[in-house]
Amino acid sequence: RLMILAIVKSAGPLLIAGFILVILIFFFAVIILNGVAGYIEEAHSDDPYVDMMQVYFCSMAMALLTLFMSITGGVSWWELQRLLLQIHVMYGMVFVCFISIMVLAALNIITGIFVNDALELTKADHDFMIQARVAQNSQNLIHLQNLFKSMDADMSDTITLSELEAGLRRDSVRVAFSRVGIEVPDAMAFFALLDTDGSNLLEIDEFVMGCLRLRGNANAVTTESAMQRMEVMIKASLTAQSDIKRRLHTIERHVSAW
């Protein structure tokens, strides 16, 4: 997708670069054709290089195609270099200069245009994704605030466990939770996860922030509830161990006193 966008965006610079490329190829084609024509006129009838020159440089169109193929892999440029060296060393140097300019400069510039545009589009795409995520979070925030108000039956700006259970019995509320990516299999466990201050009342900030924390994972409520129960069990186990140690220490003191 980024490559297609890069091609579309760089169409203008690409046309300009292609036009310059054609002009360069045409300039070198004129020079080489002039030398080939002079060589063929003066060559003997049994010259083995004449036939090859007529294949690659029989016309201006063929000369342009030959030079284009020499820089794109269509024909080995050494094969053409051997023919031009038969004319004169100067034409061989001209051809080497052409290859150097096209491969090391012109084609790399065109490649750089695509790469630069692709990088810019990647950055723009990343920024767009961030903006879309921020917009989605804002929509979820508003949606959760409206959901809270719909379950606040007594208009007290707080939700009790009974109000949450009553709300979850309505299909509209369950659908609303699903829209933000939250599944609530157990109302009591869900309420306990959101009630961070242990007041048995959910204020709007507790509700919204808790839902945003749990959204996007269908098993988040179950997992968080299980972790919370495990934490309680661990604390109870540690308390029991401390109590056992205290009792053992008391028994040891009584035994020592006897």
TrEMBL record:
Domain of life, per UniProt, equals Eukaryota
* Residues covered by the EF-hand domain: 139-174, 182-217
Q: What is its main location?
A: membrane
Q: Which Pfam families match?
A: Ion_trans (PF00520)
Which cellular compartments is it found in?
Answer: Membrane
Q: Name one GO molecular function term.
A: monoatomic ion channel activity
The record's GO CC annotations read: membrane
Q: Does the keyword Chaperone apply?
A: no
Keyword list (alphabetical) reads: Calcium, Membrane, Transmembrane, Transmembrane helix
Topology of the protein relative to the lipid bilayer:
Multi-pass membrane protein
Looking at the UniProt entry, the stretches that span the membrane are 12-33, 53-78, 90-115
**Entry-linked SUPFAM superfamilies:** EF-hand
UniProt protein name: EF-hand domain-containing protein
Species name for this entry? Noctiluca scintillans (Sea sparkle)
